[in-house]
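Tokens for chain A. Residues wanted.
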């Protein structure tokens, strides 16, 4: 039954009931009753006109088409597709070298044995938002659930729908290679208690819609802070150095500041220069982005809409 059918039935029922009531009262105050019936019909119909579409919107089925855009926005291809091994799709196996050890990205194709094909939508949301596996095990924050926790339900379920539409790839990935004490997974429960805040993004009403959209992308699916913010001894963000860059980025790369308040040449960039760099990889001085950022541009930012790039630019100029 569609929402329009429900609305028609409810309107007709309401009109019938009002008509019956008005009939019994006709001998008393016919004129006032007729006006009341008309008023009730108008108010009830207007209420349904507003409420029913909202219910329909909130109940929309997950969209793989929208999910593909979220997949691009999150840069999933860069971390989960091993180009060296020429595996199709995000079958994992990409090596991430960090000061805490070597992490291997997992297979996120819908393969039921080696991928996430047996997961439910809720288990996927829990992994992204809480950093826990379907078995209840804690994930290492090399999987950036610390950023994905800010994503809204619709984007997460759309992403889930897109991943489920991909071709399953049967591939077992290697285990992480971590030294003590980082190889003690149970310690992650304590780490989360100390450093992890599970909370969806909340817009700031005093800022523009575009600024809030940029803040959502940068801090949520785009997870820019994961590479551009330095970490403490325990692998948590140094909050007072947000997006300030770090000499100890993934694979030992030096990652620049993208916070105009934290030094570096970025504070001189204009909004148009930020957008152009994200589209092409070219810096304002004519040089090109290298290392892992070149993959981010190729697989992610160059494919985002102009509107989203402008939003990112607006946010980064005043984070």
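Reply:
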């Amino acid at each position: 039954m569609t929402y329009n059918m429900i609305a028609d039935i409810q309107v007709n029922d309401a009109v019938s009931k009002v008509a019956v009531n008005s009939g019994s009262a006709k001998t008393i105050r016919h004129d006032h009753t007729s006006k009341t019936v008309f008023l009730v019909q108008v108010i009830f119909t207007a209420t349904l006109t507003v409420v029913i579409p909202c219910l329909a919107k909130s109940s929309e089925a997950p969209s793989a088409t929208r999910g593909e855009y979220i997949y691009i926005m999150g840069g999933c291809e860069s971390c989960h597709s091993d180009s060296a091994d020429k595996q199709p799709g995000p079958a994992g196996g990409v090596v991430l070298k960090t000061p805490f050890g070597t992490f291997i990205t997992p297979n996120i194709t819908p393969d039921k044995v080696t991928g996430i094909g047996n997961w439910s939508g809720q288990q996927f949301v829990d992994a992204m938002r809480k950093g826990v596996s379907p078995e209840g095990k804690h994930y290492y924050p090399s999987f950036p659930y610390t950023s994905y926790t800010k994503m809204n339900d619709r984007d997460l379920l759309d992403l889930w729908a897109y991943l489920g539409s991909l071709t399953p790839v049967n591939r077992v990935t290697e285990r992480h290679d971590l030294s003590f004490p980082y190889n003690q997974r149970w310690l992650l429960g304590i780490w989360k208690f100390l450093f992890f805040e599970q909370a969806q993004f909340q817009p700031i009403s005093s800022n523009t819609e575009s600024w809030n959209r940029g803040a959502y992308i940068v801090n949520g699916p785009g997870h820019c802070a994961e590479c551009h913010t330095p970490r403490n001894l325990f692998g948590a963000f140094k909050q007072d150095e947000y997006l300030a860059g770090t000499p100890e980025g993934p694979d030992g790369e030096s990652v620049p500041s993208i916070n105009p308040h934290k030094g570096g040449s970025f504070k001189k960039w204009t909004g148009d220069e930020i957008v152009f760099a994200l589209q092409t990889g070219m810096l304002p001085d004519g040089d090109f982005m290298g290392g892992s950022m070149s993959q981010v541009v190729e697989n992610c930012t160059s494919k985002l809409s102009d509107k989203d790039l402008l939003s990112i630019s607006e946010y980064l100029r005043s984070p």
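Residues 62-187 form one domain. The first helix runs from residue 3 to 24.
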